[in-house]
Amino acid sequence: MILAITSIGTFMGTLNSTIVNVALPVMAQEMEVSISAIQWVISAYLLTTVLLLPIFGKLSEFTGKKYIFASGTLIFVVGSALCAISHTLGLLVVSRILQAIGTSGMFSMSMGIVSEAFPVSGRGKALGIVGTMVAIGTIAGSSLGGIFVSAFGWPSIFVINVPIGIIGSILSFIFLPKSYIQAENRSFDIVGTLFFSMFILIFFLALLFIQQDVLPPVYLIPAIMIAAVFLLAFIKAETRAKNPLLDLSLFKIREFSCGLIAAYFCFIILNSTMFFLPFFLQDILKLSTLDSGLILSAYPISMGIVAPVSGWLSDRITYRPLTIAGMIVTAVAVLLLAALGQTSSVLETILVMCLLGTGLSVFQSPNNARVMSSVSANQLGIASSTNALFRYIGLSSGTTFSMLIFSFSSDITISNLSGNFNAGAFLHGVVSVYLFDAFCALIAMAFSVVRIGRSSVSL
Length: 459
Fold this sequence. Notes:
78% of the residues lie in helices and 0% in strands. By secondary structure, the chain is mainly alpha-helical.
Protein backbone atom coordinates (compact mmCIF):
# COMPACT_ATOMS: atom_id res chain seq x y z
CA MET A 1 0.00 0.00 0.00
CA ILE A 2 2.84 2.40 0.84
CA LEU A 3 4.52 1.62 -2.48
CA ALA A 4 1.27 2.12 -4.41
CA ILE A 5 0.55 5.47 -2.72
CA THR A 6 4.03 6.89 -3.32
CA SER A 7 4.17 5.55 -6.89
CA ILE A 8 0.85 7.13 -7.88
CA GLY A 9 1.79 10.46 -6.32
CA THR A 10 5.18 10.43 -8.03
CA PHE A 11 3.63 9.57 -11.40
CA MET A 12 1.06 12.39 -11.17
CA GLY A 13 3.65 14.98 -10.19
CA THR A 14 6.09 13.97 -12.92
CA LEU A 15 3.42 13.69 -15.59
CA ASN A 16 2.29 17.25 -14.90
CA SER A 17 5.77 18.59 -15.58
CA THR A 18 5.51 17.47 -19.24
CA ILE A 19 1.84 16.87 -20.14
CA VAL A 20 1.17 20.61 -20.38
CA ASN A 21 3.69 21.06 -23.23
CA VAL A 22 1.38 19.78 -25.94
CA ALA A 23 -1.49 21.99 -24.70
CA LEU A 24 0.45 25.28 -24.74
CA PRO A 25 -0.54 26.38 -28.28
CA VAL A 26 -4.22 25.76 -27.55
CA MET A 27 -3.99 27.60 -24.22
CA ALA A 28 -2.24 30.56 -25.85
CA GLN A 29 -4.90 30.77 -28.55
CA GLU A 30 -7.86 30.58 -26.16
CA MET A 31 -6.32 33.06 -23.69
CA GLU A 32 -5.11 35.33 -26.53
CA VAL A 33 -1.52 35.49 -25.27
CA SER A 34 1.83 34.86 -26.96
CA ILE A 35 3.70 31.55 -26.92
CA SER A 36 6.52 33.14 -24.91
CA ALA A 37 4.01 34.31 -22.29
CA ILE A 38 2.25 30.95 -22.02
CA GLN A 39 5.64 29.30 -21.40
CA TRP A 40 5.42 30.58 -17.83
CA VAL A 41 2.79 27.92 -17.20
CA ILE A 42 5.70 25.45 -17.36
CA SER A 43 8.46 27.69 -16.01
CA ALA A 44 6.59 28.65 -12.83
CA TYR A 45 5.87 24.99 -12.09
CA LEU A 46 9.49 23.94 -12.61
CA LEU A 47 11.01 26.80 -10.66
CA THR A 48 8.71 26.38 -7.66
CA THR A 49 9.34 22.64 -7.51
CA VAL A 50 13.12 22.99 -7.54
CA LEU A 51 13.07 25.75 -4.92
CA LEU A 52 10.95 23.79 -2.45
CA LEU A 53 12.40 20.28 -2.72
CA PRO A 54 15.23 20.70 -0.16
CA ILE A 55 13.07 22.91 2.06
CA PHE A 56 10.43 20.19 2.41
CA GLY A 57 13.21 17.68 2.95
CA LYS A 58 14.39 19.68 5.96
CA LEU A 59 10.86 20.28 7.27
CA SER A 60 10.32 16.52 7.41
CA GLU A 61 12.66 16.49 10.41
CA PHE A 62 10.06 18.50 12.33
CA THR A 63 6.77 17.15 10.99
CA GLY A 64 7.60 13.70 9.64
CA LYS A 65 7.44 12.51 6.03
CA LYS A 66 3.83 11.32 6.15
CA TYR A 67 2.20 14.71 6.64
CA ILE A 68 4.35 16.48 4.06
CA PHE A 69 3.57 13.81 1.44
CA ALA A 70 -0.16 13.60 2.29
CA SER A 71 -0.58 17.39 2.49
CA GLY A 72 1.38 17.78 -0.73
CA THR A 73 -1.03 15.41 -2.47
CA LEU A 74 -3.99 17.43 -1.21
CA ILE A 75 -2.44 20.74 -2.29
CA PHE A 76 -1.71 19.21 -5.68
CA VAL A 77 -5.40 18.29 -6.05
CA VAL A 78 -6.51 21.82 -5.20
CA GLY A 79 -4.00 23.28 -7.63
CA SER A 80 -5.15 20.90 -10.39
CA ALA A 81 -8.80 21.84 -9.86
CA LEU A 82 -7.94 25.55 -10.03
CA CYS A 83 -5.88 24.98 -13.20
CA ALA A 84 -8.89 23.36 -14.86
CA ILE A 85 -11.10 26.41 -14.25
CA SER A 86 -8.43 29.05 -14.93
CA HIS A 87 -9.20 31.01 -18.09
CA THR A 88 -6.69 33.81 -17.62
CA LEU A 89 -2.93 33.42 -17.76
CA GLY A 90 -2.36 35.01 -14.35
CA LEU A 91 -4.75 32.67 -12.55
CA LEU A 92 -3.35 29.67 -14.41
CA VAL A 93 0.24 30.49 -13.43
CA VAL A 94 -0.77 30.94 -9.78
CA SER A 95 -2.63 27.62 -9.91
CA ARG A 96 0.41 25.93 -11.41
CA ILE A 97 2.55 27.30 -8.57
CA LEU A 98 0.09 25.76 -6.12
CA GLN A 99 0.35 22.49 -8.05
CA ALA A 100 4.14 22.68 -7.81
CA ILE A 101 4.00 23.15 -4.04
CA GLY A 102 2.08 19.90 -3.82
CA THR A 103 4.44 18.16 -6.23
CA SER A 104 7.44 19.24 -4.13
CA GLY A 105 5.84 17.74 -1.02
CA MET A 106 5.26 14.42 -2.79
CA PHE A 107 8.60 14.22 -4.60
CA SER A 108 10.73 15.21 -1.63
CA MET A 109 9.32 12.41 0.53
CA SER A 110 8.51 9.51 -1.80
CA MET A 111 11.87 7.74 -1.88
CA GLY A 112 12.49 8.40 1.82
CA ILE A 113 9.14 6.85 2.75
CA VAL A 114 9.78 3.78 0.58
CA SER A 115 13.33 3.40 1.92
CA GLU A 116 12.00 3.39 5.49
CA ALA A 117 9.22 0.94 4.71
CA PHE A 118 11.27 -1.70 2.90
CA PRO A 119 14.23 -3.71 4.19
CA VAL A 120 17.53 -3.61 2.32
CA SER A 121 16.77 -6.96 0.67
CA GLY A 122 13.70 -5.57 -1.14
CA ARG A 123 14.51 -1.87 -1.35
CA GLY A 124 16.04 -1.99 -4.82
CA LYS A 125 12.92 -3.43 -6.42
CA ALA A 126 10.64 -1.00 -4.55
CA LEU A 127 12.69 2.08 -5.45
CA GLY A 128 12.91 0.73 -8.99
CA ILE A 129 9.14 0.93 -9.26
CA VAL A 130 9.11 4.50 -7.93
CA GLY A 131 11.88 5.39 -10.37
CA THR A 132 9.86 3.83 -13.16
CA MET A 133 6.94 6.11 -12.32
CA VAL A 134 9.26 9.11 -12.61
CA ALA A 135 10.55 8.03 -16.01
CA ILE A 136 7.17 6.98 -17.43
CA GLY A 137 5.50 10.15 -16.16
CA THR A 138 8.20 12.30 -17.75
CA ILE A 139 8.10 10.52 -21.10
CA ALA A 140 4.37 9.76 -21.41
CA GLY A 141 3.27 13.37 -20.95
CA SER A 142 3.40 14.30 -24.63
CA SER A 143 1.35 11.37 -25.92
CA LEU A 144 -1.24 11.46 -23.11
CA GLY A 145 -1.52 15.24 -23.34
CA GLY A 146 -2.22 15.06 -27.05
CA ILE A 147 -4.97 12.50 -26.55
CA PHE A 148 -6.72 14.41 -23.75
CA VAL A 149 -6.44 17.82 -25.42
CA SER A 150 -7.75 16.48 -28.74
CA ALA A 151 -10.66 14.63 -27.17
CA PHE A 152 -11.73 16.80 -24.23
CA GLY A 153 -9.90 20.14 -24.37
CA TRP A 154 -6.91 21.36 -22.35
CA PRO A 155 -8.68 21.57 -18.92
CA SER A 156 -9.00 17.78 -19.00
CA ILE A 157 -5.26 17.31 -18.41
CA PHE A 158 -5.80 18.86 -14.97
CA VAL A 159 -9.25 17.44 -14.19
CA ILE A 160 -7.96 13.87 -14.39
CA ASN A 161 -5.71 14.54 -11.37
CA VAL A 162 -8.56 15.48 -9.05
CA PRO A 163 -10.25 12.11 -8.33
CA ILE A 164 -6.93 10.23 -8.35
CA GLY A 165 -5.34 12.81 -6.06
CA ILE A 166 -8.25 12.80 -3.60
CA ILE A 167 -8.02 9.03 -3.26
CA GLY A 168 -4.25 9.23 -2.93
CA SER A 169 -4.44 11.91 -0.24
CA ILE A 170 -6.98 9.96 1.83
CA LEU A 171 -4.91 6.79 1.57
CA SER A 172 -1.77 8.74 2.51
CA PHE A 173 -3.28 10.05 5.75
CA ILE A 174 -4.58 6.57 6.62
CA PHE A 175 -1.78 4.20 5.63
CA LEU A 176 1.54 6.03 5.61
CA PRO A 177 3.54 5.45 8.82
CA LYS A 178 3.85 8.26 11.34
CA SER A 179 7.28 7.40 12.69
CA TYR A 180 10.16 9.79 12.11
CA ILE A 181 13.40 10.84 13.76
CA GLN A 182 12.96 14.35 15.11
CA ALA A 183 15.74 16.88 14.69
CA GLU A 184 17.67 17.65 17.87
CA ASN A 185 18.07 21.30 16.90
CA ARG A 186 14.69 22.78 15.96
CA SER A 187 16.09 25.98 14.41
CA PHE A 188 15.53 26.45 10.68
CA ASP A 189 18.39 27.54 8.43
CA ILE A 190 17.03 30.85 7.06
CA VAL A 191 20.36 32.18 5.76
CA GLY A 192 21.16 28.97 3.91
CA THR A 193 17.65 28.90 2.45
CA LEU A 194 18.02 32.46 1.11
CA PHE A 195 21.39 31.73 -0.53
CA PHE A 196 20.06 28.50 -2.02
CA SER A 197 16.97 30.27 -3.37
CA MET A 198 19.09 32.96 -5.05
CA PHE A 199 21.32 30.32 -6.61
CA ILE A 200 18.36 28.38 -8.01
CA LEU A 201 16.50 31.49 -9.20
CA ILE A 202 19.46 32.95 -11.08
CA PHE A 203 20.58 29.63 -12.54
CA PHE A 204 17.15 28.44 -13.66
CA LEU A 205 15.83 31.80 -14.84
CA ALA A 206 18.94 32.14 -17.01
CA LEU A 207 18.35 28.66 -18.48
CA LEU A 208 14.65 29.37 -19.01
CA PHE A 209 15.16 32.82 -20.59
CA ILE A 210 17.82 31.47 -22.96
CA GLN A 211 15.63 28.47 -23.79
CA GLN A 212 12.74 30.83 -24.63
CA ASP A 213 14.98 33.19 -26.67
CA VAL A 214 14.35 36.01 -24.20
CA LEU A 215 18.12 36.25 -23.62
CA PRO A 216 20.88 35.41 -26.12
CA PRO A 217 23.10 32.42 -25.23
CA VAL A 218 26.05 34.76 -24.53
CA TYR A 219 24.47 35.57 -21.14
CA LEU A 220 24.63 31.93 -20.01
CA ILE A 221 28.24 32.02 -18.75
CA PRO A 222 27.86 35.27 -16.71
CA ALA A 223 24.62 33.96 -15.20
CA ILE A 224 26.30 30.70 -14.22
CA MET A 225 29.18 32.66 -12.62
CA ILE A 226 26.77 34.78 -10.55
CA ALA A 227 24.82 31.69 -9.55
CA ALA A 228 28.11 30.03 -8.57
CA VAL A 229 28.84 32.92 -6.17
CA PHE A 230 25.56 32.30 -4.36
CA LEU A 231 26.25 28.56 -4.40
CA LEU A 232 29.62 29.13 -2.71
CA ALA A 233 27.95 31.45 -0.18
CA PHE A 234 25.36 28.74 0.47
CA ILE A 235 28.07 26.13 1.03
CA LYS A 236 29.91 28.42 3.44
CA ALA A 237 26.70 29.18 5.34
CA GLU A 238 25.89 25.47 5.61
CA THR A 239 29.26 24.69 7.20
CA ARG A 240 28.48 27.20 9.97
CA ALA A 241 24.76 26.49 10.51
CA LYS A 242 23.71 24.52 13.59
CA ASN A 243 20.92 22.79 11.67
CA PRO A 244 21.75 23.33 7.97
CA LEU A 245 19.19 23.18 5.19
CA LEU A 246 21.37 20.61 3.44
CA ASP A 247 23.74 18.42 5.41
CA LEU A 248 26.89 18.72 3.32
CA SER A 249 28.41 15.73 5.09
CA LEU A 250 26.13 13.62 2.89
CA PHE A 251 28.30 14.50 -0.08
CA LYS A 252 31.33 13.03 1.67
CA ILE A 253 29.60 9.68 1.18
CA ARG A 254 30.99 8.77 -2.21
CA GLU A 255 28.15 6.43 -3.11
CA PHE A 256 25.66 9.22 -2.42
CA SER A 257 27.41 12.06 -4.26
CA CYS A 258 28.58 9.98 -7.24
CA GLY A 259 25.14 8.42 -7.52
CA LEU A 260 23.46 11.84 -7.67
CA ILE A 261 25.91 13.13 -10.28
CA ALA A 262 25.41 10.01 -12.40
CA ALA A 263 21.62 10.44 -12.07
CA TYR A 264 21.95 14.09 -13.16
CA PHE A 265 23.59 13.04 -16.43
CA CYS A 266 21.05 10.24 -16.86
CA PHE A 267 18.15 12.71 -16.78
CA ILE A 268 19.96 15.03 -19.19
CA ILE A 269 19.90 12.12 -21.66
CA LEU A 270 16.27 11.27 -20.96
CA ASN A 271 14.92 14.77 -21.58
CA SER A 272 17.14 15.77 -24.50
CA THR A 273 16.40 12.61 -26.49
CA MET A 274 12.68 12.85 -25.81
CA PHE A 275 12.54 16.49 -26.96
CA PHE A 276 13.67 15.79 -30.56
CA LEU A 277 12.10 12.37 -31.19
CA PRO A 278 8.58 13.73 -31.98
CA PHE A 279 10.05 16.11 -34.60
CA PHE A 280 12.02 13.24 -36.13
CA LEU A 281 8.96 10.99 -36.36
CA GLN A 282 6.55 13.61 -37.71
CA ASP A 283 8.77 15.80 -39.89
CA ILE A 284 11.48 13.39 -41.06
CA LEU A 285 9.63 10.05 -41.24
CA LYS A 286 6.35 11.89 -42.09
CA LEU A 287 4.22 9.99 -39.58
CA SER A 288 0.93 11.26 -38.22
CA THR A 289 0.61 12.67 -34.71
CA LEU A 290 -1.29 9.58 -33.58
CA ASP A 291 1.24 7.17 -35.10
CA SER A 292 4.19 9.05 -33.64
CA GLY A 293 2.52 9.06 -30.24
CA LEU A 294 2.01 5.30 -30.39
CA ILE A 295 5.65 4.77 -31.42
CA LEU A 296 6.89 7.02 -28.63
CA SER A 297 5.04 4.80 -26.16
CA ALA A 298 7.73 2.15 -26.79
CA TYR A 299 10.06 4.28 -24.69
CA PRO A 300 8.04 4.29 -21.41
CA ILE A 301 6.74 0.74 -21.95
CA SER A 302 10.26 -0.65 -22.13
CA MET A 303 11.22 1.31 -19.01
CA GLY A 304 8.15 0.06 -17.17
CA ILE A 305 9.03 -3.54 -17.94
CA VAL A 306 12.76 -3.39 -17.26
CA ALA A 307 12.99 -1.10 -14.18
CA PRO A 308 11.37 -3.49 -11.64
CA VAL A 309 13.50 -6.36 -12.96
CA SER A 310 16.61 -4.22 -12.64
CA GLY A 311 15.65 -3.28 -9.08
CA TRP A 312 15.07 -6.95 -8.22
CA LEU A 313 18.48 -7.86 -9.65
CA SER A 314 20.18 -5.07 -7.70
CA ASP A 315 18.93 -6.65 -4.46
CA ARG A 316 20.72 -9.86 -5.43
CA ILE A 317 23.86 -9.06 -7.43
CA THR A 318 24.58 -5.52 -6.10
CA TYR A 319 24.15 -2.28 -7.95
CA ARG A 320 27.54 -1.53 -9.60
CA PRO A 321 27.42 -3.99 -12.53
CA LEU A 322 23.89 -2.84 -13.36
CA THR A 323 24.58 0.91 -13.24
CA ILE A 324 27.70 0.47 -15.40
CA ALA A 325 25.94 -1.84 -17.86
CA GLY A 326 22.92 0.49 -18.00
CA MET A 327 25.03 3.45 -19.08
CA ILE A 328 26.93 1.37 -21.64
CA VAL A 329 23.63 0.28 -23.20
CA THR A 330 22.40 3.89 -23.07
CA ALA A 331 25.53 5.16 -24.85
CA VAL A 332 25.09 2.55 -27.59
CA ALA A 333 21.40 3.43 -27.92
CA VAL A 334 21.93 7.17 -28.39
CA LEU A 335 24.66 6.47 -30.95
CA LEU A 336 22.16 4.30 -32.83
CA LEU A 337 19.65 7.15 -32.57
CA ALA A 338 22.24 9.41 -34.16
CA ALA A 339 22.52 6.94 -37.05
CA LEU A 340 18.79 7.11 -37.87
CA GLY A 341 17.84 9.11 -40.93
CA GLN A 342 15.19 9.69 -43.58
CA THR A 343 15.46 6.12 -44.87
CA SER A 344 15.14 4.52 -41.42
CA SER A 345 12.16 2.25 -40.86
CA VAL A 346 9.61 2.54 -38.10
CA LEU A 347 10.74 -0.82 -36.72
CA GLU A 348 14.34 0.37 -36.45
CA THR A 349 13.21 3.46 -34.59
CA ILE A 350 11.08 1.45 -32.17
CA LEU A 351 13.90 -0.99 -31.44
CA VAL A 352 16.38 1.80 -30.74
CA MET A 353 13.91 3.54 -28.41
CA CYS A 354 13.31 0.26 -26.56
CA LEU A 355 17.08 -0.18 -26.21
CA LEU A 356 17.40 3.36 -24.83
CA GLY A 357 14.56 2.79 -22.36
CA THR A 358 16.18 -0.47 -21.29
CA GLY A 359 19.57 1.16 -20.67
CA LEU A 360 18.13 4.01 -18.63
CA SER A 361 15.98 1.61 -16.57
CA VAL A 362 18.84 -0.79 -15.89
CA PHE A 363 20.76 2.18 -14.48
CA GLN A 364 18.07 4.05 -12.55
CA SER A 365 16.61 1.40 -10.27
CA PRO A 366 19.87 0.20 -8.65
CA ASN A 367 21.26 3.73 -8.63
CA ASN A 368 18.27 5.07 -6.67
CA ALA A 369 18.41 2.14 -4.28
CA ARG A 370 22.10 2.62 -3.53
CA VAL A 371 21.84 6.39 -3.13
CA MET A 372 19.11 5.98 -0.53
CA SER A 373 20.85 3.07 1.21
CA SER A 374 24.10 5.00 1.58
CA VAL A 375 22.69 7.36 4.24
CA SER A 376 21.53 6.80 7.79
CA ALA A 377 17.86 6.59 8.79
CA ASN A 378 17.66 10.17 10.10
CA GLN A 379 18.94 11.50 6.75
CA LEU A 380 16.40 9.79 4.49
CA GLY A 381 14.16 12.87 4.20
CA ILE A 382 16.84 15.25 2.99
CA ALA A 383 18.42 12.47 0.86
CA SER A 384 15.08 11.88 -0.88
CA SER A 385 14.55 15.59 -1.60
CA THR A 386 18.15 16.02 -2.79
CA ASN A 387 17.70 13.07 -5.14
CA ALA A 388 14.60 14.71 -6.60
CA LEU A 389 16.42 18.05 -6.84
CA PHE A 390 19.23 16.58 -8.95
CA ARG A 391 16.61 14.88 -11.11
CA TYR A 392 14.83 18.15 -11.88
CA ILE A 393 18.06 20.02 -12.53
CA GLY A 394 19.05 17.22 -14.92
CA LEU A 395 15.74 17.42 -16.78
CA SER A 396 16.00 21.19 -17.14
CA SER A 397 19.66 21.04 -18.16
CA GLY A 398 18.87 18.35 -20.74
CA THR A 399 16.33 20.55 -22.49
CA THR A 400 18.46 23.71 -22.40
CA PHE A 401 21.83 22.21 -23.33
CA SER A 402 20.35 20.16 -26.16
CA MET A 403 18.57 23.22 -27.55
CA LEU A 404 21.80 25.24 -27.52
CA ILE A 405 23.82 22.45 -29.14
CA PHE A 406 21.13 21.90 -31.76
CA SER A 407 20.83 25.59 -32.63
CA PHE A 408 24.59 26.08 -32.97
CA SER A 409 25.14 22.98 -35.11
CA SER A 410 22.08 23.24 -37.38
CA ASP A 411 21.46 27.00 -37.67
CA ILE A 412 17.83 26.22 -36.87
CA THR A 413 16.35 28.01 -33.87
CA ILE A 414 13.89 26.21 -31.63
CA SER A 415 11.16 28.69 -32.57
CA ASN A 416 11.56 27.59 -36.23
CA LEU A 417 10.87 23.91 -35.50
CA SER A 418 7.46 24.02 -37.12
CA GLY A 419 7.81 21.47 -39.92
CA ASN A 420 9.27 23.88 -42.53
CA PHE A 421 12.93 23.30 -41.71
CA ASN A 422 15.66 21.69 -43.81
CA ALA A 423 15.76 17.95 -43.08
CA GLY A 424 19.53 17.67 -43.60
CA ALA A 425 20.26 20.55 -41.22
CA PHE A 426 17.86 19.11 -38.64
CA LEU A 427 19.51 15.69 -38.72
CA HIS A 428 22.97 17.29 -38.44
CA GLY A 429 21.85 19.17 -35.33
CA VAL A 430 20.23 16.10 -33.79
CA VAL A 431 23.37 14.04 -34.37
CA SER A 432 25.35 16.63 -32.39
CA VAL A 433 22.84 16.41 -29.54
CA TYR A 434 22.96 12.61 -29.45
CA LEU A 435 26.76 12.60 -29.48
CA PHE A 436 26.58 14.91 -26.46
CA ASP A 437 24.15 12.46 -24.83
CA ALA A 438 26.57 9.58 -25.47
CA PHE A 439 29.30 11.60 -23.76
CA CYS A 440 26.96 12.19 -20.80
CA ALA A 441 26.35 8.42 -20.60
CA LEU A 442 30.08 7.80 -20.43
CA ILE A 443 30.44 10.37 -17.64
CA ALA A 444 27.63 8.70 -15.69
CA MET A 445 29.30 5.34 -16.24
CA ALA A 446 32.60 6.73 -14.94
CA PHE A 447 30.94 7.96 -11.74
CA SER A 448 29.33 4.55 -11.35
CA VAL A 449 32.77 2.94 -11.57
CA VAL A 450 34.46 5.17 -8.97
CA ARG A 451 31.54 5.55 -6.57
CA ILE A 452 32.48 2.79 -4.11
CA GLY A 453 33.73 4.24 -0.83
CA ARG A 454 34.38 3.33 2.79
CA SER A 455 32.07 6.01 4.20
CA SER A 456 28.78 4.49 3.03
CA VAL A 457 26.24 3.50 5.65
CA SER A 458 24.10 0.40 5.31
CA LEU A 459 20.62 0.55 6.81
